[in-house]
User: Fold this.
Amino acid sequence: MNVIETVGLGKRYRQTWALRDCRLTIPAGQVTALVGPNGAGKTTLLRILAGLATPTAGTATVVGHAAGSQQARDAVSAVDQAVPLYRHLRVRDLLAAARALNDRWDTDLAEQRLSSLPLTMSSKVGKLSGGQQAQLALTLAMARHPRLLLLDEPLASLDPLARQEVLGWLMTCVAEDGLSVVFSSHVITELERVATYLVVLSQGQVQLAATVDSLLDSHLALTGPAADADRLAGQVPVITAQQAGRQTQVLARTDTAPPGWAARPVTMEELVLGYLREPSPRARPRLEVAR
Amino acid sequence: MTVPMISAIKVPRMTRVTWYKHRTLVLGIPGMFLLAATLLVIDSLLQRHWISAHHFTNCLTYANIDTSSQCLTENSSPAQGVFAEFVNYWRTEGAVLAVFSLAAVAGLFGGVPWVAREFEGGGFRFTWTQSVSPRRWLLGTFGLLTLLSVVAAAICGVAAHWWFQVAQFRLDGGTNPWGWESVEMTPLSMASWTLLAMALALLLGVLIRRVLPAMIVFAVTFGGCVLAAQTWLPEFLFRVGESSVRITTNPNQTYPEMSYIAQTWYARPGGPKLNTLAVVEQLQGYSLAQQDRWLAQRHLSEWIAYQPHSHLVWLVLARNGILVAVAAVLVVASVWWLRRRPAE
Assistant:
């Protein structure tokens, strides 16, 4: 089953398309890394999936229901990069409001999680640090037991230790509940540890969408003579090429190295950066989504 | 990890959430109306006590006539002087204005901020990512705040109506049941204006999504609504179903007391209306008998279009019905706009 399906999805703000002709399929149970440069359309995509914005074109389906429908809202939790909480409320009241807003609510999970954090129930949400607010927002999102969790750079305000701890907690939830997560972040090394699926967005369009393992298996970093670079392009699909003196470093979509070229496996960061350097999807053959 | 708890929802969820989020408004706006009602009751009791203590009850039983002159005929001259001290136009008019403006205050400081601040502060994203749709969030919150405000406004209207039964005689020159003060100092009018104010606040909050600009636009728009409702709308409504009568010296041929005089004109039998000002100019300086003779010689008759006092209650109902209908349109427009542009 696919947890997310979009067909021809587009969102226009006045004259500018933030997202255009976005076709995306993400299977259930994956931790998906959603990466792309600023303005790529990540936040717009996540907001449409969360039911916070309506698409200008196309359709979006989450957990089998139209994004924004009541069934989709019941099944999806989202934490925005701005950590949307009612800052004038006390933690206790925010918890009570969240409990009232949801048919399904795990009080034990919320209270246990919050008791492990350095905050009191009588604290005003607005007085908490950015990291504490992010932790609170994540806790409220998880206490709903969603089937899909959408996270838009939620860990940016956390210190490295807290980030490790939160990621570990999220992965435990994924393992126990079969939760699907879409995780947007600029810190690729952070995503590398947890992501099983990768979506690269650029200029409002999907550049790449496949499981991380299949992508790493199907790409190689090649090093060879600069003079042979043009010939290489005729042999294997070249994603990007960077010349350094007489040598050329190439990111190619192939699982075997052509003769005369030294090959090594690519990291996720190299893969992402390679695709972001060549942002036009029409410049190369479309990569089939591996499932 | 524990098994998720399915909570039994008894109180509508948005009611509980609105209480958690907007306690100050939920208590403050109805509290404001109830405080005003209490003050009006106290003031009315004091006025009634004064009237009773000075035996001026007769002064309060006439309408559409000069109160002071009526007191003069009913009481001794010194007593009339004492009653003149009771008349306090500015205090009464000021109190009527203050009570009437409570609806605007509710919309301006209650209705506009709750919805616009949700957008401005981004809090709506929290609610919308729970199991609550934007429409439910909007109507749920609006419903509770508005229901409480309208009920409190109606209670305040009851107190205002009771207070105005006496206070209207403090308006110099007596009472006029067709005057704006009489029309507005009723539970129905107070409730209708409050409903309109909250609905307008809702629409502007959803449209503008920023507190201060929305408050400014609300003040201007609501002021326009009040102006239209006090000028154009009564002129239009009070002429619906009006009656006309030819005025003669025959006392049986006249219009009922306390009627609303919509128009006066002169005409020849079966002829068109004449320029009233031109005729009145000709009649200046003539006695009543001379006027009648002058009109008869020219086969002219004087006509009056009037609205009988018995129609007043229906016209006031119609006026308030229009306010409620406009409020309903504003709420529907808010929901439509929110659906069209949820979070952009």
Observations:
- The first helix of chain A runs from residue 42 to 50.
- Chain A touches chain B through 44 residues (CB under 8 Å).
- Confidence is low (pLDDT under 50) at residues 282-291 of chain A.
- The longest strand of chain A covers residues 2-13.
